[in-house]
Amino acid sequence: MSSETAKVTVGEKKLTKRDLMSVFIRSNLFQGSWNFERMQALGFCFTVVPIINRLYEGEERTEAIKRHLEFFNTHPYMGAPILGVTAAMEEQKANGAPIDQAAINGIKVGLMGPLAGVGDPIFWGTIRPVFAALGASFASTGSIFGPLLFFVLFNAVRLGFRYWGVFYGYRKGTDVVSDMAGGVIQKLTEGASILGLFVMGGLVNKWTNIDIPVVVSTTTNQEGKKTVTTVQDILDSLMPGILALGLTFACMWLLKKKINALWIIFMLFGLGIVGYVLGIFAVPGS
Amino acid sequence: MEPIQIILVFLVACVCGMGSILDEWQTHRPLIACTLTGLVLGDMTTGIIIGGSLEMIALGWMNIGAAVAPDTALASLISTILVISGGQDISVGISLAIPLAAAGQVLTILVRTITVGFQHSADKMAESGNLRGIDMLHVTALLLQAMRIAIPVLIVALSMGTSVVTDMLNAIPDWLVNGLNVSGGFIVVVGYAMVINMMQAKYLMPFFFLGFVVAAFTTFNLVALGVLGLVAAIVYIQLSPKYYLKEALAQYGAAGGGGSKPANDLDDDLDD
To answer: Which positions make up the signal peptide (chain A) (predicted)?
Structure first.
């Protein structure tokens, strides 16, 4: 398609690097007007304003705005390549290529689902928790390095991806769809899931404190030295952190039963208070 | 609280409130929000520590699709104010902030419903080709999200000096404080559970157990765990027949004159 339309585009309406830069900068406010009716629609339109501004006048402009006020929702950062592809298609359309309204929205809608499916495990499931966990472990000692590390690392990755996404999408135009199917994305998603799950496993073990000081037996050896065995000692000899593992699975099960995460948190607060009063749980670090 | 501090806290609340709808700069995450609040209240170190503890709890809270997560911005700001200006124990500050995360969630839903009206105004703007109007609507919606956090925070900040609030905070009994401390030790699992559920990949669960066992019997820190996880991911992808068979097939097919039923040929090879 690009070779045919290239003939048409010569010397006509052309998006500048500045326009795309402007889209990239605006995309930092992508979800500002997120609403329950059309979700990111107004945000999408806001982000492509520089493109509409450059390419269309009068009636065509009205059409273009309406086109980009249609329902849209994806992972916010994954919106970047879609914005790029949209820019390329709009440019071709503005120069008379036979691309209709439905084709542009079709591409947008077609990409938003799969890309959200890729973005969620990579950004929300892996990159943010891993960097945040790293930052939090420094922060718990009061070191400014913790929040700085998280802020700088995460935003470097995010901005880098956003920038690359807009320009890559634009360059690739509509070819991006076939490119995405090339297995690379699938590998990336699966790899991110593995890393995310591995680190979560480590965190369940390291960052959970449960101490059950209930005494099971007290034995005195020949020298008169007393050995106290608590429930916690037995569990630790089995596998340190096994209670945390069980609790995690209980939470996963409750979440799958569509129970609100906050209710589960309140339940755990209740459990902690009742457990402490009854002497089943000890305050961590005491 | 000094008047200047109240103004600064209000501004930080605006930034964090915008952060929690945008999900871009992560200013709504406890690590950032608590640090900034601590900074303007004159005790950044405490802010960072609260941020670290709250971040562990909120690690898996995320907005996916149309689902709204508990609000970390409101929880972060108010818990930091309670600890630094209200003189509360960190664990108490955090526990008191959790219900506020729920309140923040309700407010988010409210504002996300109000902005439906903005969407309809945008339709009208489209008729006249008014791009400037689209910009204004979008930014106003964003400011509404900022106010969602900034106004409740302002109310808390203003009431912090009053004797009623101080007496109320000081009347919290010991058993409650200790009980909350106990729960603070394991409340983090909810976030982990959310992340694991989101992955929706049962067949990858062995990697979760691997991470768990490695952490159980070693003193590896997070960096080491991350590297191990990365190596596991790379090795898995390299060895997975799902990927290397596909690539091998593509090569084999090309070498054998192209499109001559490469799958069957390979099956024959495997049968040998």
So the answer is: none
**Residue entry with tokens 């200047």:** B4
Q: Is residue A283 part of a domain?
A: no
CA distances, B211 to each of A31, A235, B191 (Å): 34, 19, 17
Residue A247 has a pLDDT of 95
Euclidean distance between CA atoms B101 and A35, whole angstroms: 20
pLDDT tens digit sequence for B235-252: 999 888 888 777 777 777
State whether A31 and B29 contact (CB < 8 Å): no
8 Å CB contact of A62 and B222: no
Out of A172, A205, A238, pick the residue that ends a domain.
Answer: A205
Per-residue pLDDT, B266: 45
Mean pLDDT of B244-262: 60
Q: Is the pLDDT of residue A45 over 80?
A: yes
Q: B199-235: buried (b, 16+ CB within 10 Å) or exposed (e) per residue?
A: bebeebeebbebbbbbbbeeeeebeebbebbbebbee
B229 touches chain A (CB under 8 A): yes
| Cβ within 8 Å, pair A272-B123 | no
Asked if residue A12 belongs to a domain, the reply is no
pTM over 0.90: no
Chain B nearest C-alpha distance from A105 (Å): 17
Q: Are residue A81 and residue A201 in the same domain, yes or no?
A: yes
CA of A223 vs chain B CAs: smallest distance (Å) = 32
Greatest alpha-carbon pair distance for chain B in Å reads 87
User: Across the interface, which of B29, B95, B195 has its CB nearest the CB of A196?
Assistant: B195
A234 and A260 together in one domain: yes
Looking at the domain assignment, is residue A118 inside a domain?
A: yes
Q: What is the pLDDT of residue B258?
A: 44
**Number of domains, chain A:** 2
Task: Specify whether the CB–CB gap between A67 and A32 falls below 8 A.
Answer: no
If asked whether residues A115 and A181 sit together in one domain, one would say yes
User: B196, A204 in Cβ contact below 8 A?
Assistant: no
Nearest chain B residue to A279 by CA: give it: B179
Q: In terms of domains, do A148 and A238 share one?
A: no
Residue A71: domain span: 17-205
Interface test mutation site (partner A, options B35, B48, B127, max chain A beta carbons within 10 A): B48
What is the per-residue pLDDT for A9?
Answer: 45
Domain boundary among A140, A175, A205: A205
ipTM: 0.82
Cβ distance A255 to B197 less than 8 Å, yes or no, reads yes
Kindly report the backbone phi and psi dihedral angles of residue A99, in degrees, each rounded to the nearest multiple of 5, phi listed first: -115, 120
Q: Are B131 and A65 in contact (CB under 8 A)?
A: yes
